[in-house]
Design a protein that fits this description.
2 copies of one chain form a homodimer. With 274 residues, the first copy, chain A, is an alpha/beta fold. Helices cover 27% and strands 32% of the residues of chain A. The first copy, chain A, has 8 helices and 12 strands. In chain A, helix 5 packs parallel to helix 6. At the A-B interface, strand 1, strand 2, helix 7 and helix 8 of A face strand 1, strand 2, helix 7 and helix 8 of B. Strand 2 of chain A pairs antiparallel with strand 2 of chain B, so a sheet runs across the interface.
Chain lengths: 274, 274
């Protein structure tokens, strides 16, 4: 048997490859090219349009950080909107909070939900939870009729290419601010500090125009470009409000030291954002 | 012209590739295969036996963290030994300290020194500094006759493959302890937390048998496997002794928040080391 690899190229100058044991799903859904591979070391891996989205081994650095930072910053989150994230990983984390009464996942592509429900059993089949609601709809349309409804919004999206490009726009950030309840908190996937500094600077300026306490933070995800990913925290409540609160379940990535460390930025990047 | 890439595979399941504009040096030195490429985005890149060692764009996360963490922890470092590191990047950082009277680089391969002196002008030609001393010798032999001589030792080496494997051994850690002056501090390159947890656990146990205050820390280096690298700090002085001291020059990566953040470890990895 010959070597099989999946090779990702999100930036023109950088590629990453994981060794594939078996390609389990490989289809065009109408929205995107969806692949699910059994990889060596990283386990099952979801790939959308050639870009690695989720692996069994390292998704905790992503899902715990995009979810718990805004959830903990809010003192009593009851309603949560998750944009994208049909894989269910962020939803699983949100549902750990007993305070949550309603968690809406707004995902465009139903096949992502179906394939991931079958192949990521560790996510605990979160869409079967009675507090979960799946909406197959464009998040732009959905949020326009959701003024002030959500205590926490998590934008767990693909990268700003093709249809997802508009999720990295001032218009989208404004819509999230519009759908947020008073004292709500938002976290968005917001790219990699070494590769995407100028995009991040633009999004931070937008965040600063909308909220009193925006902040960029980041986590370690070896299968993402450059080995990590960042997030934009946006709220009128500072992220530090979530520090040292009890966790709803034991964590695999997050602890109070990592929570604080996620907001520490290297000097070159601090200067780039200034 | 066709696409040219350098592809690195340090682990059997993971590859990374950088786009090459021009291959500037490609030779076998007698010790190793030495390549120096002009890459897109990352600039000039040193590759030894197929593994990326240094790039112009992201070496600061490596060099500042392997150097300043032990240097700042020591209250008055006068004598410094750097094992490997013929590229001169760590030496440059060490020489920023006015207290340093003698900085010895013990490197096996003189061609690394020559090629890097020519191609990394930003490292400031540190071997020309009168306080610098280049020793072309095996560090094992050198340290055996250097009992108690060094205030700081920096082991800035390649990965534990082939001749460098012995640099990740209890014998080598013992030799460093032997060559260290009282209250001295050591930092060694110590691999990636996701990929190399069991090696790191072994090295930490060795460090604990030799020093009162060993600690693993890490930094972001996108061109390294998994996008980062770790270090073993070893001393009878805790690393926190270096926090909030003035820096000898402005930094590009390090600041007090990143200094502390480097020692924060994700929960899964804390458990793996326990």
């Amino acid at each position: 048997m010959t070597d099989q690899w999946i090779t990702e190229q999100l930036h023109p100058y950088y590629r990453k490859s994981l060794r594939v044991e078996t390609m389990l799903v490989d289809e065009h859904t109408g929205f995107q090219h969806l692949q699910l591979a059994q990889t060596e070391f990283f386990g099952k891996t979801l790939i959308l349009d050639g870009i690695i989205q989720v692996t069994e081994r390292d998704n905790m650095g992503y899902h715990e950080m995009i979810t718990h930072v805004p959830m903990l910053a809010h003192d009593n989150p009851k309603t949560v909107l998750i944009v994208g994230a049909g894989d269910g990983g962020a939803l699983q984390q949100v549902l750990h909070y007993p305070s949550v009464e309603r968690a809406v996942v707004c995902e465009l592509d139903r096949r992502v939900v179906e394939v991931c429900a079958e192949h990521f059993p560790d996510f605990g089949n979160p869409f079967a939870n009675p507090r979960a609601e799946l909406v197959i709809e464009d998040a732009f349309t959905y949020m326009q009729r959701a003024a002030g409804q959500f205590d926490v919004i998590i934008s767990d999206t693909t990268d700003p290419i093709g249809p997802a490009e508009k999720l990295f726009s001032a218009e989208f950030y404004n819509l999230m601010a519009h759908a947020l309840a008073p004292n709500g908190a938002i976290a968005t996937q917001c790219e990699q500090m070494y590769f995407d500094a100028s995009l991040i600077k633009t999004m931070l300026a937008t965040a600063q125009s909308l909220f009193a306490h925006p902040a960029y933070y980041h986590s370690l995800v070896p299968t993402y470009p450059g080995g990590g990913i960042g997030f934009m925290y946006m709220s009128n409540v500072p992220w530090t409000n979530g520090l040292n609160k009890p966790y709803p379940v034991p964590m695999n990535y997050l602890n109070p030291e990592m929570h604080r460390a996620a907001f520490a930025l290297p000097e070159f990047f601090r200067r780039a954002l200034a």
